[in-house]
Every structure is written in structure tokens, then in C-alpha cells.
Design goal:
11% helix; eight-stranded mixed sheet; single chain; Rossmann fold; 8 helices; mainly beta; Immunoglobulin-like; five-stranded mixed sheet; elongated
Length: 712
């Protein structure tokens, strides 16, 4: 693109020395090619020019596209190459659905939809057609007709832009907005149309012209949309709208495949004094707050970069301005490519200017540190020379995934209701849990309110203020509300965002005979391998009693539950017996449903399963022994290990009469085993029946069993 005439004054003040070879390439492995601009350069303010460059010399030695699905393999990089170079392969395959990239250009390309379809099918990209709604072409007013008059040069630019956006974000929708002419007034109108289009997250502009002031800034001031602009193709110098404070100015590199860990390397694109990436310090645009370089007192160009050298160019298919496959370069390649990267990232936050994201995360780029876009040394050097970190020709560098294109972290949350529907009889109540979750950033206080409660009903939230990530209980009492269905809206208001969820309330008339059902306790905590109970009680709430059949659901795998009995008369109870078995530790909600002849109700029991505890059990046999005087007897005592118990169990006995003595042999058992309590009844022992308690002890674990000694 044309270098601003206003830079003539500035170049006088810059100290430089002529190199031995004017415009010599930095990287010797980049082939030499000839290319031409497809649009004539702009020589006056308010008239813009596209910047695409097409290779006109032999394509021998240029890279061949990889990942071709079928047919002829064109020269130039294809989608698989570009995704690999910029660490986007996985995201390009999975992200972008439902998001739209807008391409703003001038004039019409009559064959663009068929050319785009051929490009995408060649590289195995999913179809994107006007019939499916994926691709749309409109004029600068957003209408499908009349379209501008065709132009061969701009048609090549249009094909390049749409195909590069497709290469990076194949799942994105595409919107082509065609301005009536190259005058800035028409292109400005097209810019506003693109920004207002539903679903647009990024807008690409591969055109520009000489700087002329700040009068056009409002047309690029669209917070919440990533607007990318080519930095220019005539080497060091600034163009507009690349210098706008609201856009991402995209520079260009030479990209070659190599044996490095990344597999690729890049240098500043500079072919000769009239062909290379743009950069420099604006004459007119104030320095944005997020840009902190010290050598330029106003807006510095550029911000980021990507491949643009025609000698390491990209494959493009165009049949209106061209005759099919060709190799293209220029920052007209890098601008739509970067728009595609923005579309793969999380959508920009409302109010953000996405260009600032790169400055907030400068380490998320492949830093380009060699090459320059001016045949002499400039001062400051970073205006035209690549350096570690930020520099004018390549900005912070080229994409390494989407980290440098993600929104800055904000505190946000979501809100939901469970259950999302309540069915209540008049005069009854029910609850729903209102849950919040942190979606980005950190926690914040969320104030909860409710609306939509019908007359005669009441609703409360407890608590009404929570920290994001916590929950509140919504209690709804149907009261005397009229029969019908109502939508209750619960609004959560935080410091940075407001979100809502809804609960559908259905109020119906109580049946003649009705009952309630409840559980006590409503929570049972069991170790794996143990069991417990809860009482399921029913009560007549209106009319007469009825038979209520009970069922249970929600049991975790490995656990069992029984109801005894499974059928009760309203007013009676059933015992719920729960066995944790081998269920995984955790909390589970069990639902007990009572179904009567006239109504169905449910209650819940929370089953909390904890990890199994090593333990033992103890048993003795026989349960009773009769011994004469004098006499001898033996009880067999068996210890059984539970859950891998391996401790030492010692024994004692209580209840022995005074003239009876005994001993445990052996005196202890490790884990599982058997001991014998051998006892002797003395001659003088009085006759009678004596209950004995045999106790096994292992640390804090104590278990007992009872036997009976009868002395005759």
C-alpha cells in the first residue's frame, strides 16, 4: 500500500546509513519472486486501495500446500500449513461455530461464492454457502441488492480475504460487505454495517491509504468487535485505518518451514524499498492507553503480525480477477488471518477494544526478532527493525494459539434453578435451589430478587445475597393463587453482570383425597459396606385415607435399598433400609415416590456414602452351655475381619459367677480367627443361669457377643 506523504518530514529527522545492498533479504532460504499489486496504490486522502499482491513470476521453488483433500495441489500455503505455523490446528477444527467474520472490501466479486466453495472443498473444509446461511454477501447498506459494479483487482482481494478467514476458522460464518466505491465514505458505511451485523465478532479490512487526520475514527469505534487492518505493503510508513486507535494493525512476515521445535521460523517481510510490511508512528492519532512504547508519542503501528511475504505466500483460488489458483502475499493475507484467530478465541467482552488483549499478554506470541522493513537503520530502531518483545513491523509477534487474542479476565457468573418447574396444589409449598457458578474471573456478591409471583402466592429466597458459586433456596407457597402456569424470574445482580433464570410454577386444585409424604431422617450417612434406615411417613392432608404405593429412585451403583412395606395406608409409615455396599463415596439424592389413587407426591433422602472403615465382628457358639458341679466347658469365639481389618483383638468376659474361672486360648487374634474360652465350674458354685458378655477389643474398636452359662 502507498506510504503516507506525511512521512517525508519525519524521514528527514531520522538518522540512517545506506546498506551495501538496497533491500537485501535477511533469510537466504526465501526464494526470489516477482509480484504485483492487484489494485493501484492510493495517492490521495479519502481514496483507499486494496493491498493484495499476486506472484507473477515462476512458482518453482515455492512451497506446495499440504492437506489437499483431492485434486491438484496448488503452490502456496494452505489451511493445514497456516494452522500448524500458528499453533491453531486443534482450535481450528473445534471452535468458531456460530461466530461470524466480516470482510469489508470495495466493489463486487461475481464469482466469489463458487470460488470460495472450490477452495474449501480442495482443502477439506466444511461447506459455507448462502443456502445454508453460512455465507452472506451484502452491499454497504446491508442489502443483497443492488451490489456494486465488479472489479477484477478487488475481486482478487475479496477471494484472498474470505479464503484466509476460512483457512483459520473453517467453522465460522462469513459476511462479505461490499462498498460501492473505494472512497472512504462508502467504505466507512460498509464498516458500520459489518459492526452492526448479528453474530459478528471480527471484521477484516485489507485496504488503506494516506493518513489525513482523525475525522474517520468514529467508523472504527466498535467496542466488542475485533477489527483487523493491514498495516501496509510499501515498507516503513503509516497508513489509515491501520493507525486508528480502535483497530488491530496487522504487520507481515516471511514464513518458512524448518527443523526447529516449532517447525517454522519468521522474519520481517521486506522484499525491496517498495515492497514490505508497513510500520511507524502516526502523525494524527493519539496514543491509546494500552500502548506504552516510548519512542512514538502517538499511535504506533503495528500490533501483531502474520505471514505476508509473496515469496512465502498462500494459495488462493479466484476466477474473476484471475484464472484459478495463484500465490498471494501482502498484509492483505495477515489481516483476515488474524481476524480468524480472534474468531477462534473467546468472544470479546462488550466495551473492550480487542487490540488491547495483545498488550496485556505479550508472551502469548511467537516473537519475531530479525529483519526490518526499511533499507536503512531508523531511530528509534524498533520503528522499522524487529527486536525481542515489541517492534513496529511485527508488533508483539505472530499467533501462538489464541492466548494473545483472548478477552481480559472479568468477573462473571451463571445462575440456574433446580428443579426448573414446580407443580403445587393450592395451599401447599415447594422449593427450588437457585445455584450460581463463577464463569470467569473471581467471586463477587450476587443479590437475588424474584418477580412474576401470582396473586395469592408467596415466594422467598434464603439467603437473598450470596457469593458467586453458592446457592439459595427458593420457597414457593401456592396459597390461594388461581389455577394456572406462571413464570417466576429470579434475577442475580453482581458488580459486573446481571443474569436471570426462571422457574415454571403450575398451580392446581387439591384433589378430594390427598396425602403428604416425608422422610426422617432426611439424610443418612453410611460407610461403604454398612447400612442404615429412614422412616418414610405419610399423612392424610384432605379427604380420606387411601392406599399409597411406594417406590424409590436415584440409588447409586453398588448400593441397595428396600421399603418395608412397599404399600401403606395414608397415615402409616414404611421403613427405608439403605445399604451403602460398594457405592462410590459421595452424596446422592434418593427420591421416594408415593402413588395414591388420587395424587402422587415425593420426598427425598440424601444418602452420603463415606469410604469404608476397617472393622471386625465377633460371634460365640454355642449360645448356651449347661455344666454340672464340678465341671468344665468351652465357648468358641470367632472374629471376622471387615474391610481389610488386620488389627490385634484381645478378649474379656463379664458376668462370670464367683466359683467359675476361665481363660481365652489363644489370648488374642490378628485380623480374622478363632479363640476358645475354656472355663471350670467349682464344686461350691451355686446353681443357676448366668448371662455372660464376651468382648473383643482392638484399639478404639470394641464389639461384644452374649452367651448363657447354666450351672446345675
Amino acid at each position: 500500500m502507498h506510504q503516507s506523504k506525511f512521512y517525508i518530514a519525519l524521514t528527514v529527522s531520522i538518522l540512517f546509513s545506506l546498506p551495501a545492498a538496497w533491500g537485501q533479504r535477511v533469510a537466504p532460504n526465501i526464494p526470489k519472486v516477482k509480484s504485483r499489486r492487484v489494485c493501484a496504490p492510493s495517492t490521495s486522502p479519502h481514496v483507499m486501495s486494496c493491498g493484495a499482491r499476486v506472484v507473477t513470476s515462476s512458482l518453482e521453488g515455492l512451497a506446495k500446500a499440504s492437506g489437499v483433500a483431492a485434486g491438484f495441489t496448488p503452490s502456496g500455503y494452505g489451511p493445514a500449513d497456516l494452522q500448524s505455523a500458528y499453533n491453531l490446528t486443534t482450535l481450528s477444527a473445534s471452535a468458531g461455530a456460530g461466530r461470524t467474520i466480516a470482510i469489508v472490501d470495495a466493489q463486487d466479486d461475481p464469482t466469489i461464492e463458487s470460488d470460495l466453495a472450490f477452495y474449501r472443498s480442495t482443502f477439506g473444509l466444511p461447506p459455507c454457502t448462502s443456502a445454508s446461511g453460512c455465507f452472506q454477501k451484502v452491499n454497504q447498506f446491508g442489502q443483497t441488492s443492488p451490489l456494486p459494479s465488479p472489479d477484477a483487482g478487488w475481486a482478487e482481494e475479496i477471494a484472498l480475504d474470505l479464503e484466509m478467514a476460512s483457512a483459520i476458522c473453517p467453522n465460522c460464518n462469513l459476511l462479505l460487505v461490499e462498498a460501492d466505491s473505494t472512497n472512504d465514505a462508502d467504505l466507512d458505511a460498509a464498516e458500520n454495517t459489518a459492526a452492526a451485523w448479528p453474530g459478528v465478532v471480527a471484521s477484516s479490512n485489507s485496504w488503506g491509504g494516506p493518513e489525513f487526520g482523525t475525522s474517520e475514527e468514529s467508523y472504527f469505534n466498535h467496542p466488542g468487535i475485533a477489527i483487523t487492518v493491514s498495516s501496509g505493503d510499501s515498507g516503513w510508513g503509516v497508513e489509515y485505518p491501520a493507525s486508528s486507535a480502535y483497530v488491530t494493525a496487522v504487520g507481515g512476515t516471511s514464513l518458512v518451514q524448518d527443523g526447529s521445535t516449532r517447525g517454522w521460523s519468521e522474519t520481517v517481510w521486506f522484499t525491496n524499498s517498495e515492497e514490505g510490511t508497513g510500520s511507524g508512528c502516526s502523525f494524527y492519532i493519539a496514543k491509546p492507553s494500552w500502548q506504552t512504547d516510548t519512542g512514538c508519542g502517538k499511535r504506533m503501528v503495528g500490533d501483531v503480525s502474520a505471514v505476508a511475504d509473496p515469496a512465502t505466500g498462500v494459495a488462493v483460488y479466484d476466477t474473476y480477477g484471475g484464472s484459478g489458483w495463484a500465490v498471494f502475499g501482502g498484509t492483505s493475507v495477515s489481516a483476515p488471518l488474524i481476524a480468524g484467530v480472534y474468531a477462534l478465541a473467546s468472544p470479546p467482552n462488550p466495551g473492550d477494544y480487542p487490540v488491547s488483549y495483545a498488550y496485556a499478554n505479550p508472551s502469548a506470541f511467537f516473537d519475531v526478532t530479525s529483519g526490518r522493513n526499511f533499507p536503512r537503520t531508523c531511530t528509534p530502531a524498533y520503528f522499522c527493525t524487529a527486536e525481542p518483545g515489541y517492534d513496529g513491523p511485527t508488533g508483539w509477534g505472530t499467533p501462538n494459539g489464541v492466548g494473545g487474542f483472548q478477552p481480559l479476565s472479568v468477573n462473571d457468573f451463571s445462575i440456574s434453578a433446580s428443579p426448573a418447574a414446580l407443580s403445587l396444589l393450592q395451599g401447599t409449598s415447594g422449593t427450588s435451589t437457585i445455584s450460581t457458578a463463577i464463569t470467569t474471573g473471581g467471586a463477587q456478591t450476587v443479590n437475588l430478587t424474584i418477580s412474576g409471583v401470582p396473586s395469592g402466592a408467596t415466594a422467598t429466597l434464603n439467603p437473598t445475597s450470596i457469593t458467586a458459586g453458592a446457592s439459595s433456596t427458593l420457597t414457593v407457597a401456592a396459597g390461594t393463587a388461581a389455577v394456572g402456569t406462571y413464570t417466576l424470574t429470579i434475577t442475580g445482580t453482581g458488580a459486573s453482570a446481571t443474569h436471570t433464570t426462571t422457574v415454571a410454577l403450575t398451580v392446581s386444585t387439591p384433589p378430594l383425597n390427598d396425602f403428604s409424604i416425608s422422610a426422617n431422617p432426611a439424610s443418612v450417612t453410611l460407610a461403604q459396606g454398612t447400612s442404615g434406615t429412614s422412616m418414610i411417613a405419610t399423612a392424610v392432608t384432605s379427604g380420606n385415607s387411601q392406599t399409597v404405593n411406594l417406590t424409590i429412585s436415584g440409588l447409586p451403583a453398588g448400593a441397595t435399598a428396600t421399603l418395608n412395606p412397599t404399600s401403606v395406608t395414608a397415615g402409616d409409615s414404611s421403613t427405608l433400609t439403605l445399604s451403602a455396599g460398594t457405592a462410590a463415596p459421595g452424596a446422592y439424592t434418593l427420591t421416594i415416590i408415593g402413588t395414591g389413587a388420587y395424587a402422587t407426591h415425593s420426598t427425598s433422602v440424601t444418602l452420603v456414602v463415606t469410604p469404608s472403615v476397617a472393622d471386625f465382628s465377633i460371634a460365640a457358639s454355642p449360645s448356651s452351655i449347661t455344666v454340672g458341679k464340678p465341671g468344665i466347658g468351652t465357648f468358641k469365639v470367632t472374629v471376622s475381619a471387615i474391610n481389610g481389618f488386620s488389627g490385634r483383638v484381645t478378649f474379656s468376659v463379664a458376668g462370670l459367677p464367683s466359683k467359675v474361672a476361665g481363660v481365652f486360648l489363644p489370648s488374642f487374634v490378628n485380623g480374622s480367627g478363632t479363640t476358645y474360652f475354656i472355663f471350670v465350674v467349682g464344686q461350691k458354685q451355686t446353681s443357676g443361669t448366668f448371662p455372660l458378655t464376651i468382648t473383643g477389643t482392638s484399639g478404639s474398636l470394641v464389639h461384644s457377643t452374649n452367651v448363657t452359662l447354666i450351672v446345675k
